Predict the structure.
Amino acid sequence: MPHDKTAQTAPAAKGAAKLKMSNTKFRVLLIIPMVIVALVAILATMAGVTLGSTLDTFLGKGETYVETPNDKTAWDSSYYNVQVTEGEE
Amino acid sequence: MRETTITRRQFFGATGGIAAGAVAATALGGCSGAAADMTRTTPQTPDPAQAKEAAYKVAAQIQDEGTVLLKNSGVLPLAKGSTVMPFGRAYLSPIYGQLTSGGSAKWSVDPVTPEQGLSEFLIDNSAADAMRAAGDPEALEEAEGASAAGKAGSVLGGDCRIYEYAPSIYDGIAERPEATGIVFVTRAGQEGQDQKMDAYSDGTPHYLALSGNERGAIKAAKRICGAVVVVIVSSAPMEVGDLMSGDLEADAIVHYGHPSERGFAELSALLDGDANPSGRTVDTWPRDFTADPSFASVGLHTYDNLPIKSGSLTDGGELTRTFNEYQEGVYMGYRYYETAALVDPSFSYDDAVVFPFGFGLSYTAFSQSLDSVNADDERVVARVTVTNTGSVAGKDVAQLYVTSPYTGLDRSDGIEKPACQLADFAKTDLLQPGQSQTLELSLDREDMASYCYTHENPGGTVGCYVLEAGDYVVSLRENSHAVIGQATVTQDETLWYDGSDPEHTRRSERDAQSALDDQGNAVERDGQTYVAATNRLQESSDYMRAQSRVLSRADWAGTQPVYEATKSIDDKFSKDHDLFVTFDPATDARFGNVEGSLVYAAEAPTSGAKNGLVVSDLRGAAYDDPRWDALLDQIDWDADKADIVRNFSGDAYVTSAIDSIGLPSTIDMDGANGLKVQGSDHGYDMTKSCSYGYQPLAAATWNKDLLYRMGESIGTEGLAHGISGWYSPGLNLHRSFFSGRVFEYYSEDPVLTGKLAERVVSGAGDKGMYCYLKHFVLNDTETGRSQLICTWADEQTMRELYLRPFEIALKGARKTVRYTSDDSGTIAEKVMRAGTAVMASQTCIGTMIGHCNYALLHDILREEWGFEGMVISDYWVWSGNNHRDLAMRAGCDTYLCMDAPVMWSISDYDSPTARACMRRAIHNLAYAVVNSSAMQGMVPGAVQETTESPWWGIIRGVDIAVAALIAGGIALIARRTKGEREHPELYKRSKRKQAKLDRKLAEKDAGEKG
């Protein structure tokens, strides 16, 4: 396809249609925040792994429960009396 | 058992820190639970608020019964509604207990104040107003050249400052003879440092003496008020001899202890007689603390030839090792003062001792009579009748002591015999005026034996207990010094407990090494062999003889302890002193993967078996039940590696789950004065559980039943909060009142300590709590404990004093365990040993740190005492893996370290020897856990699971959002790149790029023209 020389090769003349941002500049502007955000995510994940117990303390823990065989759910498993007895003599 | 989904508040046995590692479904391939379909069920737990309030009733009774009335000229009890005038800064700002969030105890957040505690009286605020108007007083500084008063000895904080107002602030207060002045005096304790042992700028000789301003406050109170009561708010005794007579004489002295959150609520009742004090001192109160024989040895003493490169992260680098020698030997506390009075003509007991051990007054009077003492071959039983001869109801304490004969054999063999030793004690019920109660106190005949560390046994070992022939005086005493009545028990023949046969092995050892029947009684089997106590720490005894000295009746004046700031240690005692730094699992001859080492295994144990068991199947099973081996054969060392390694390197307030055997995770917590519960205040919430007065207060009750109820209450709170283990009680002794941790230990006496601990452990055990008895052993002071201090004592001293509380509690404590006994779900009960957890000491015994000390953790604890359960290290942060390898191989089953995976590693995970040692440790851990409240709600075959912590959802959301953003960005860049390639004219370009493009176009045009 033949080129329209003046339109394709010369910088935009004053008053002409505005050109898009340079791609290099665009990449720089986009990649830097992407790297920062990625680092934040990685650090947050690492913190979750390394400080899990501490975060549990302050942010709450997962739910712990008991899995009981279906045929034993009616068995007495309350090995300790949960009625609080009076502390006085 | 309810079949519902539990809420977060209903956690049981949860540890979020190892949430993801709880029993995963994939790991249950070989477990009985896996074959069946499973249903999520909810364990039943007590209501935490109810448990706390019930516990506070026990705490109040401990305050009532543990407060010691030391002096009373008749001013107490005060008339209800009478006028009191409080003095002293401690009235406005007392030390309730632990000062900071660091350390093992709970701190107070909204305590009942002394002012609130005195609410039943008419308070004259003249002195208090003067104090408030004066602002905060300046802290008393150290004397020139003395140690700093404001030093913070550890990362746990604390200092030795003394604050008191200048007495001149009271000058303008008019006399009020109808008012009773109440002068509050307070002192702190702190984990991680000892108290200041030298002078302050005003001449106060040390931290535990009354300061000049405190003396001034007492004098001012005497001038202004008709009578003066001094209330001592301190766990440790204080030097108060001057308050007994002269110009500082107080009309009454009350040792209130550290009362914690609500202890002062009992103050009015104790002062006006609604509660009658029945506490007894747990220590001897000398007139001059610096004259105590321990004073020469505690503190900082340094070897000039023993550097060590520490692996500690907090105290890393090269250290110079320090030492602490127990030169006073068995003559510690009242054992010293009573013996000195017996053997030293120049010694005046009345001048030396202000309050004897076991001393305490009441608002009523009692008489005690020794009705009988009956002895057979095994037991000595005394019957004592106590009568309330006064006019108000009260409780009294009966104390039974033994005096052993001191013979030529003792002199020749180096056996020491204190003038008297507590053997048993009992507290009466509340006796009304005129009412009597007969108590039975008892001891085993073998309890009268002494340990001889020089005796050569027939089997080639050295050292054993010996019950010498002779007359033993069994005495009923008001306290360690005042004899009420006595009887003689004769031992006809000298009996060496050298282990040559069962008859020459102490019954307590035979019992401890035997299985129990379902009622908790030892069952000796025919042909069973037993291990008697023999020297296990020979080097320490040798050191004391060669490089130090041990106080002896044979030469009382010539063996008194001496102060040595520095000295050189002989090579033979420093050999391998740094093994816990240099340990190489591959080559070490004693603990390495070397044939002939103490822990060597040629073949790795079976693993990955599919035997269909989970830990919950073994609740109630004996430690040596063969099913344990079948269960442990199932361990998947690869899949469970992270959790297994964590148990040996980073169990901070948890133990990790091991999925392949269905071992649930647990939460274990600190709490010298109550159970710490997690929350948002430095990781805890002090309001969620009861805060008791500190340990010496509990001990001062001398009430075994009350201590059992304290254990029960703590166990119930643990059950309510999903906490199965308690890093308490502390069983080290009050060897020195300058120990920063007097508040955490019961007493100077091992029998009082051991018997009370046995009740606490039993009470807690009956509610499912395992108690880590600590710090095993010789961690009686704090100085140098995290800098590898070398602690030395002869073996008689160690066994009769410092090991004894642990021995008594571990051998004697029992708990009732409910378990499923058949395939129909029938519940049965059996009595088992309650002592299933021990915490090793940070201090070194000799040169070897407690948690790497095989002689302690294996020879004494497991071989001699038959201990079945787990040992944990004290908090210990090291950068090197080899230290943890050595600890695990020496018998330390779990390792208390930082809650950070970066610290969770060991050097050798794969060798057969390592696997065998780890398997043994997992057995110990699982045995303790399966018979605890961690199994509440878990029938045989049941397993624990834990969902992912909810905050992971946030992190995951962030990750997804970031991933989406990045993907979008990449797509945008790609699209633009493509667009620019196709339509470069639409994009701005740099001059360089424009020139390049122009050149290309020119070349293209030229080509087209050509």
User: Anything to note?
Assistant: Chain B has four domains: 8-36+561-935, 68-276, 334-498, 959-1009.
